[in-house]
Design goal:
Blueprint (H helix, E strand, L loop, with lengths): L1 E3 L8 E3 L32 H14 L9 E12 L15 E3 L2 E9 L2 E8 L3 E5 L3 H12 L6 E15 L15
Antiparallel strand pairs: 1-2, 3-7, 3-8, 4-5, 5-6, 6-7
């Protein structure tokens, strides 16, 4: 029982009450033993990314004579989404830029003898093949930022991802059933 005194009521009221307690359980144990710690658990020795990297080691260590150099693939997301038709409003769009399925494709972009290709997607990101982070950020500044109304819900901090690719004209791609 709980007795409640109220300033506007002359006699105390008697209330019955229940105490509700909530508890949460987790099957995951924190890395440091402290439930308030931000420390993440150490990744397992064999994750899919680590396994893929290990599997690609022979390709990296023993290139075929026909294989090209390892090149970067850099992805930069600057907004929640892009309205791709706004790229047409640029006074000087990148040369040969064109719609390609549900993206814009710029087949050659860059300078100083270093050119790559760029795909701009409606999900607010663009992917630079053969270009690094500096080139991607320059493309963002020179093209994406200049297209009025292109970016919807601009991100406060751009998101990035960097991978690598290699071209080998005699390599078969079984997934696509392509052999050259």
């Amino acid at each position: 029982m709980l007795t409640l005194f109220h300033p506007f009521i002359s006699s105390p009221s008697v209330l019955s009450s229940r105490i509700v307690v909530r508890a949460f359980a987790s099957s995951r144990s924190p890395a440091s033993g402290n439930p308030l710690s931000d420390v993440k658990a150490k990744p397992k020795a064999v994750t899919s990314l680590r396994r893929t990297a290990a599997e690609s080691l022979p390709i990296r260590s023993n290139p075929t004579p026909t294989r090209g150099t390892i090149q970067p693939v850099f992805t930069l997301a600057t907004a929640e989404r892009y309205i791709l038709s706004r790229l047409r409003s640029l006074p000087d769009p990148p040369a040969r830029a064109q719609a390609f399925h549900d993206a814009w494709w710029i087949p050659k972009w860059g300078d100083n003898g270093k050119e790559g290709e760029i795909f701009v997607f409606s999900n607010g990101s663009f992917v630079c093949w053969g270009l690094g982070e500096d080139d991607a950020r320059r493309f963002s500044k020179e093209v994406i930022d200049r297209a009025a109304g292109l970016q919807v819900a601009r991100l406060s901090e751009p998101e990035t991802e960097e991978l690598e690719f290699v071209v080998d004209p005699i390599e078969c791609v079984p997934l696509l059933d392509i052999c050259t």
